[in-house]
Amino acid sequence: MKIVTKHNLFLIIMIFLYVAITIFCIIWEFNPYLWFDEAGQFWIAKGLNHDSDALSPSGTILDVIENNKHYNLDPGGFGIILHLWSCVSNHYIWLRMLPFIFFGGIVYVFYYLAYHWTHNKNITLLVSLFPLISSVLFPMAFEVRAYSMEALGVTLSVVALTSLRQKVSLTNLLKWSVVLSFFMLSRYSFIIVAFFASLYVLFLILTSAESTRKKVVQCIVYALPFLITLVYIYFAALRYQNPDIEPLSYLKDSYLIYNPNKLKWDNNFIYILFLIGLSYLWFISWKIQRLNKYAPLLYLTVSVNIIFLILSLMGKHPWDIQSNRCISMITLSLLTIAMLCAELICRIDRVVDIKYLLLFLFVLYFGNTNRKVFKPRNDTLLQISHVDLYDKKIYADRWESPCLRYQIEYGILKGKIKDYPNNYYAQKGQKHGKGIGKENNLPSEEWRRMQPALNQLVNYDILFVPELSQYKQEECSFWEPIDSTKAIVWVKKPIEN
After folding, report:
1. Which residues of 273-301 are buried (b: 16+ CB within 10 A; e: fewer)?
2. How far apart are CA 334 and CA 331, in angstroms?
3. Is 480 helix (H, G, I), strand (E, B) or coil?
4. pTM over cut 0.90
5. Could you tell me if 71 and 50 are in contact, meaning their C-beta atoms sit under 8 angstroms apart?
6. What does the pLDDT look like over 333-368, one tens digit per residue?
7. Whole-angstrom distance, CA of residue 86 vs CA of residue 81
8. Phi and psi (nearest 5°) for 480?
9. Dmax of the chain from CA atoms?
């Protein structure tokens, strides 16, 4: 009979922890409510959009591309994948499984890189927990959007540089070019990562011992998939969405050009110091053997973070260290911290066993952090859980209409609305369409003035108006919210005798 060694015991504990966290995620984080962006992404994946008529038949992949270019601000690759994915099922658990699989890939890449550089399984499993305690990455594991897809592409770009640093060959170049081109279809910000990764690859090609002719061939082979992808992105998406890359009004506070003092905030200032420290490590990594293996990671992290700062100062891209809009630079920073921690822990662990202490701290942090990331977005379903909607006439404003439509046609409200869609009115957005980046269809103030007051909607029995009620809440004497603190769902007040 084999005795369980200390090494095996830690391995068993880690495997149990990973299984427990996975079960926890599926039970507690797979929320049935798709909020506005998620619901919009779902309808785009169906070849429809936020404002499609009720019970519209699903479209083809060409319809997905067409609706994505007018109703989204992404290249649209995730929508095409979700289109194929939803052919199996439209259940919210199945939908959330797609981003969750991408997130699982992120955890695996953390594991792969840590083991590749440290060759220590226990430490590798420990630092692979980093994505699970990230306030940006972890919530995106369940968001039916392209964020986790982009983050996986970011981590794979580091694997690509590490692999190509070991061997530059036509097969290797083509393989990683195709992989990175695929992830360029996730979100526009990944193009920045792919660009700087490609500069590093170009450096590897030009400094190799191959002939000039072979170097030219290698460059062409590597560049071709990127060029094809970029041409597709521009003509199928970007030129319809935001060709001039102008600031988005709803993210204005995240642009340093409008808010330069943001760099002085405590967390942001610390992050800048962190980048300066990484820059120094990258500079000396070429001379120190221990750090040299991390040179590609340090290069990519520093360069991508610097360009995000510059683009934000130019008003071309948000900069926020706590926002999923900057998930590329955040993922690289987190990966760098994880790998440097793995290196440090390995060296300390040879003197004193600190794995269990660190594991305890990880679990404590995870347990004390509020992981109900979708709880605030689930208010609508929570509020109507005790309301009989069957024979009610329903009004939904433009913010809630795509969300509610998913629940009625595919979700938990399916079959619970009598004579749908005749007794259901969904307000149209009127702010989507060509030029969405400029929001040139209707100015916000003009849009607000055009909206009806709640008292003008007395022909309906129940209102789903999280946006509308913010504008003219004082004109609601005939209505009362189910939850006065939220003012999302409103019902008629009882008629007084």
Report:
1. ebbeebbebbeebeeeeebebbbbbbbbb
2. 5
3. strand
4. yes
5. yes
6. 999 999 999 999 888 877 777 888 888 878 777 766
7. 9
8. -140, 140
9. 94
